[in-house]
């Protein structure tokens, strides 16, 4: 029988007769509208909580058109153009950009624009270039360029069309609807725009007494999303701040911080300070500066919402820049809850672990849009994948609520899909009801992820566009995806944290990523204080697990600066004259559930053992893929990569126990014999939540202590046969 609550469903006009039955069937206790839809008149009669989307920084075209100087900005870079043998060089700055989205800001170009010789890195003096034309015809002419040097122009541009509304407009073919306009946004730093935002919100709240929750989608500054001249995505960075700029903001920054920002501080050679870049001081200062401004203004809006007796819910997406949910300022906003799109276990934990809010909500896939809910689409298959990815994370740290978005009128045309999301809703509620609202038990092993971002970007490493798959990072993102469902309390620490003694509170540290990136650490590994701190941590019994190119920077004859701890290093071509005789060892605690080959994804290539003390657990074409190494009282583990799979998740589970020197405890913590099955233990309820993460039936054996994951108590064994995707509650006593 369907239970009720904890589920939000999208509704729309024209479905009055169907809505009561649909909501009762799914057990939904809240409804919402989606971008481009409106709540029907019957909404107040449905007996459920009502969410309505609200866009502080867009939605009123009349105001936007009357205040074009309030439009938000981008900082963008032109194509790289090579100078001829002689004569001036003309650079068309809009080449490759979408004219309907972007327009060069031809205000004080000599102050806000920058021309750089990319061959030397030198800035071309402002009297050495000029600007002519406008719009798509805007051209910068460099009077005397150096022959055959490469030049770029970094330019400030207006955001002519809101990025998210543009995506929704094109995805849903709104160009055929005369009521749809290409919406222009407005900047919260503009005095007229801010006055309009606050007065509009008050009026909106007054006009909607039936609305219980204001679903801010989101606030002011969009993540960096720029389209090319074909209307396709050109550059997307879910963490990017390049669309949060304006002359007014940069003047305020200079007044507060005492130094002037350059265009290059945002363009960053064309990398736009993406999260893989080790953050510069200027960019770190900018994030802090915008965080304080945005969160202060968010608080003003939230206070208005609360005055009208409504809740404020923030969507973690779209215009979320400046509202870092793990940042120090976010708690000051007073936001009641956060909702976000769940695309994986890691993104689920990114939402559910957010501190300082009363509730978190996950919006599940697929979104009810015509790109999926159409002939040839597979909404049922996508729903199953989404649930299996996220369920293991929800079992570890439950979201308070789940929901869906889009056009319900499309979804009801797929009855099997509607049946399935009803089952998912019941299964989700059972985690709260049977688990008695408590968290499952975690191992006492304290695990940390070390990178340049630390706690501010918890659960957000190795992501480009939220949960999308990228060739160069899936081997690293798999580490986070695995950890999202494993029984460990995870802490994200920065190199500054290490310098401050943060390792004392950990048992195992992971350093994961490609050399030079913020996630591996770059030049932080040239700091002797950092190296000494980690070496001392391991010598005293700690564990270090490195994946890919950990601790990597070429210096003093080593590429992995902690090769002495990890027991491996990478051949860069400098030491090929040294003979090596690798010997693979097949038997080890870490690989007991991995009898065959190891999938390391892209791998790191040309990894060699530094000595005979290194146990090579997997070797491929002469390159070490997995190794274990004793160092002092502690241990090091190396993996060339770890794409997410059930087998790799189990491998990491074992590697953490071995690195912590706790492998003797592993066999009595309710670990299923089949890697495709996981268990969350709720000792207060005396139950375990068993999950078959496969779309096929499996048999498995469980063994665990009746008192929970660790400690004293009888070891009990259970044999289970599980249906495809089945979850089951079992008694542990």
Automatic annotation (TrEMBL):
InterPro entries reported in the protein's UniProt record: Class_I_gatase-like, Ig-like_fold, Lact_bio_phlase-like_N, Lacto-N-biose_phosphorylase, LBP_M
Single GO molecular function: 1,4-alpha-oligoglucan phosphorylase activity
One of the GO BP terms on file: carbohydrate metabolic process
UniProt domain Lacto-N-biose phosphorylase-like N-terminal TIM barrel: residue ranges: 5-440
Domain spans labelled Lacto-N-biose phosphorylase central: 446-663
One Pfam family recorded for the sequence: Lact_bio_phlase
Protein name according to UniProt: 1,3-beta-galactosyl-N-acetylhexosamine phosphorylase
Species of the source: Tessaracoccus aquimaris
Taxonomic lineage: Bacteria, Bacillati, Actinomycetota, Actinomycetes, Propionibacteriales
């Amino acid at each position: 029988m369907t239970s009720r609550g904890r589920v939000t469903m999208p509704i729309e006009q024209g479905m009055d007769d169907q809505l009561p039955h649909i909501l009762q069937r799914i057990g939904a206790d809240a409804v919402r509208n989606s971008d481009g839809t409106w709540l029907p008149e019957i909404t107040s009669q449905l007996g459920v909580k009502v969410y309505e989307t609200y866009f502080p920084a867009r939605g009123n075209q009349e105001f936007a058109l009357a205040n074009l100087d309030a439009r938000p900005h981008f900082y963008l870079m032109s194509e790289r153009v090579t100078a001829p043998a002689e004569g001036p060089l003309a650079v068309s700055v809009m080449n490759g950009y979408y004219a309907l989205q972007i327009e060069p800001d031809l205000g004080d170009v000599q102050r806000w624009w920058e021309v750089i010789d990319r061959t030397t890195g030198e800035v071309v003096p402002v009297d050495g270039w000029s600007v002519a034309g406008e719009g798509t015809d805007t051209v910068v002419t460099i009077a005397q360029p150096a022959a055959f040097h490469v030049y770029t122009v970094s330019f400030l541009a207006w955001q002519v069309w809101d990025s998210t509304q543009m995506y929704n407009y094109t995805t849903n073919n709104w160009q055929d609807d005369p009521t749809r306009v290409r919406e222009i946004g407005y900047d919260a730093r503009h005095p007229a725009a801010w006055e309009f935002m606050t007065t509009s919100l008050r009026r909106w709240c007054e006009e909607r007494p039936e609305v219980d929750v204001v679903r801010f989608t989101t606030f002011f500054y969009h993540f960096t999303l720029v389209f090319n001249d074909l209307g396709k995505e050109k550059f997307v960075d879910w963490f990017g701040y390049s669309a949060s700029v304006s002359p007014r903001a940069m003047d305020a920054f200079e007044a507060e911080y005492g130094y002037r920002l350059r265009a290059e501080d945002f363009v960053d050679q064309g990398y736009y300070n993406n999260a893989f870049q080790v953050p510069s001081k200027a960019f770190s200062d900018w994030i802090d500066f915008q965080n304080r401004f945005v969160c202060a203004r968010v608080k003003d809006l939230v206070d208005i919402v609360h005055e009208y007796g409504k809740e404020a819910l923030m969507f973690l997406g779209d215009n979320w820049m400046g509202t870092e949910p793990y940042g120090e300022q976010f708690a000051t906003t007073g936001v009641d809850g956060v909702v976000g799109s769940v695309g994986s276990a890691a993104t689920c934990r990114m939402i559910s672990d957010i501190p300082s809010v009363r509730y978190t909500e996950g919006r599940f896939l697929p979104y009810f849009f015509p790109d999926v809910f159409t002939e040839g689409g597979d909404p049922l298959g996508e729903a199953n994948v989404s649930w299996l990815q996220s369920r293991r994370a929800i079992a570890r740290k439950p979201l308070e609520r789940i929901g869906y978005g889009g056009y319900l009128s499309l979804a009801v045309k797929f009855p099997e899909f509607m049946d399935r999301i009803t089952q998912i809703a019941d299964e989700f509620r059972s985690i709260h009801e049977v688990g008695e609202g408590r968290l499952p038990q975690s191992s006492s092993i304290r695990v940390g992820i070390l990178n340049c971002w630390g706690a501010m970007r918890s659960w957000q490493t190795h992501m480009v566009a939220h949960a999308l798959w990228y060739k160069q990072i899936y081997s690293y993102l798999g580490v986070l995806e695995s950890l999202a469902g494993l029984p460990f309390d995870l802490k994200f620490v920065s190199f500054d944290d290490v310098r401050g003694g943060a390792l004392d509170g950990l048992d195992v540290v992971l350093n994961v990523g490609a050399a030079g990136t913020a996630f591996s650490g770059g030049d932080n590994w040239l700091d002797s204080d950092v190296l000494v701190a980690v070496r001392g941590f391991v010598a005293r019994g700690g564990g270090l697990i490195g994946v890919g190119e950990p601790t990597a920077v070429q210096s003093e004859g080593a590429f992995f600066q902690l090769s002495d701890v990890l027991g491996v290093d990478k051949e860069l071509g400098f030491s090929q004259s040294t003979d090596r005789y690798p010997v693979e060892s097949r038997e080890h605690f870490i690989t007991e559930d991995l009898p065959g080959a190891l999938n390391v994804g892209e791998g790191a290539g040309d990894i060699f053992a530094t000595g005979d003390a290194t146990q090579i657990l997997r070797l491929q074409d002469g390159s070490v893929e997995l190794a274990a190494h004793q160092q002092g009282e502690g241990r090091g583990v190396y993996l060339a990569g770890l794409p997410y799979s059930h087998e790799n998740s189990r491998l990491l589970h074992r590697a953490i126990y071995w690195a912590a020197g706790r492998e003797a405890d592993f066999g009595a913590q309710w670990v299923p014999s089949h890697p495709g099955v996981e268990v969350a233990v709720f000792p207060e309820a005396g139950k375990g939540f068993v999950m078959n993460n496969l779309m096929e039936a499996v048999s498995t054996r469980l063994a665990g202590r009746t008192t929970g994951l660790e400690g004293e108590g009888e070891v009990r064994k259970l044999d289970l046969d599980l249906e495809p995707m089945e979850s089951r509650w079992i008694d542990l006593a």
